[in-house]
Amino acid sequence: MVWEPHYECMSREDMQAIQLDRLQTVVHNVYEKVPFYRKLFVEQGVKPQDIKRLEDVQKLPFSGKEAITENYPFGLFAMPMKQIVRVHASSGTTGRQKVVGYSKRDIRTWSNLVARVVTMAGVTDEDIAQICFGYGLFTGGFGLHYGLEKVGATIIPASTGNTERQITMMQDFGTTVLVATPSYALYMVEAAEDMGVDTSKLNLRVGLFGAEPCTENMKKEIERRWYMRATDNYGLTEIGGPGVAGECECADGLHINEDHFYPEVINPDTGEVLGYGEQGELVFTSLTREAFPIVRYRTRDISMLINEPCACGRTTVRMKKITGRADDMLIIRGVNVYPSQIESVIMETEGVAPHYQLIVTSKGYLDDLEVQVELSGDHFTGKFKELEELEKTLKQKLQRVLSISAKVKLLEPRSIERTMGKAKRVIDLRNK
Ligand code: DLL
Q: Cystine design at 180: which of 47, 100, 132, 138 (Cβ 3.0–4.6 Å)?
């Protein structure tokens, strides 16, 4: 089923006409109402009237997280506080939170867009959805809540924490849809197995995952252990939260709600706009947000856009799964290393569990990468020779994939701290 076929399945020409019309409105709005943008546009020598065709979006300046933190808390709002009915925020790695606001109409639009992505994933009003995203300033809990409610699913607003009780609810309430970060889904399945629950007997059928990267192999692991189909959801606080893009049943990229978020992919070093099929940094311009419009926001997320037709019938442009963040990339002894590359190696190696951490240190000028990974329960026999073999295999595979050598440390099962939200994979102890 398609939630809004009129928009999700429209012709390219119609989509572009809507995008242009909305883009012109947004650009006028921010120019008139947000001093930050007016100043930026003046510096760049661009006026709202210059946006005559969709390609003219490229005349507009980029914005980034600094724009939000420097205007903390409400400096980028385009409406008076009286009309703001909600704020959300996400904490960056350093310093101030990125605070965003919503008008009543924004909340309605948001619910509708989340309704689109959960419908894409196959969720209907017959489902019982257990939301294990945090409720609060994080957009995950409330975002999914309103969208699932719109679709008519029965919601269990479980939030995070108390994992054993979560499993009991799943059993007793007959949960059919699990909403969580992929790392929490793995944590939960471990807890379920510990409790002696046979996960194949649960009613779960669909997982709505997101908020952090999940490699194809990790997704398969979740599907195998939970006996359900896992789908990916993408979004970020700055452009509204979840509901930006989601995976349909064909699972070949995430459909972007591009009548609301205009996507571009750029070369992160030069800012050059790249074409379909080219990998780079995702940039979004919000086309309908009233309270917190945002122009050419650099997400730092690495992906690519694809415009080939999808078998599901939707015509919206898709984005490939996020492979990492521009600022996630580690430069180790001059070589670019993405945590997702290491995750793929771990996931395809038998004997280790999908729980790992990367520790980066430096001695003098030389960087050191240590991959700490847990042994999977059934392989933890303690036989020294076997462990040595496993360590060697991992080292060789990592060397092949990364082109640098990494240390490998095998840990006992359950020794890496579990998180209920987003997993922290990288500990960089180098002096920056
Ligand atoms: O994580 C919004 C969200 C909530 C999306 C629930 C999906 C489901 P933030 O906390 O602001 O917002 O974090 C946004 O998380 O820039 C990406 O780096 C990462 N991220 C979000 N979804 C995905 C995904 C929410 N599906 C940041 N795959 C983004 C990979 C993701 N990374």
A: 132
The alpha carbon of 144 and the centre of ligand 1 are apart by a number of angstroms equal to 13
- Report the percent of the chain where pLDDT is more than 70: 98
Give one DSSP letter per residue of 357-409, joined into a string.
EEEEEEETTEEEEEEEEEEPGGG----HHHHHHHHHHHHHHHHHHHSS--EEE
Q: pLDDT tens, 233-263?
A: 999 999 999 999 999 999 999 999 999 999 9
Q: Kindly state whether residues 232 and 341 are assigned to the same domain.
A: no
Average pLDDT over every residue of 171-189:
96
CA–centroid distance, 139 to ligand 1, in Å, is 9
Q: Mean pLDDT in the chain?
A: 94
Q: Report pLDDT digits (tens) over 341-367.
A: 899 899 999 999 989 999 999 887 789
Tell me how many domains the chain contains: 2
Domain with 68 in it: what CATH number?
3.40.50.12780
Both structure tokens of 305: 């856009």
DSSP 136: S
Ligand 1 pocket, Cβ-based, cut-off 6 angstroms: 90, 133, 138-140, 210-213, 232-237, 241-242, 299, 301, 322, 325
Each residue of 389-407: pLDDT tens digit?
Answer: 999 999 999 999 998 899 9
Average pLDDT rounded to a whole number, residues 135-160: 97
- Same domain? 43 vs 174: yes
Give phi and psi for 68, each to the nearest 5: -80, -45
Q: Are residues 35 and 127 in the same domain?
A: yes
- Return the amino acid letter for 103: S
Q: Which of 69, 256, 281, 322 to mutate to test the pocket of ligand 1 (most atoms within 8 A of CB)?
A: 322
Beta strand pairing call for 241-247 and 229-236: antiparallel
Q: What is the largest CA-CA distance in the chain?
A: 72
Q: How far is the CA of 235 from the centre of ligand 1 (A)?
A: 5
Q: Are 60 and 46 in contact (CB under 8 A)?
A: yes
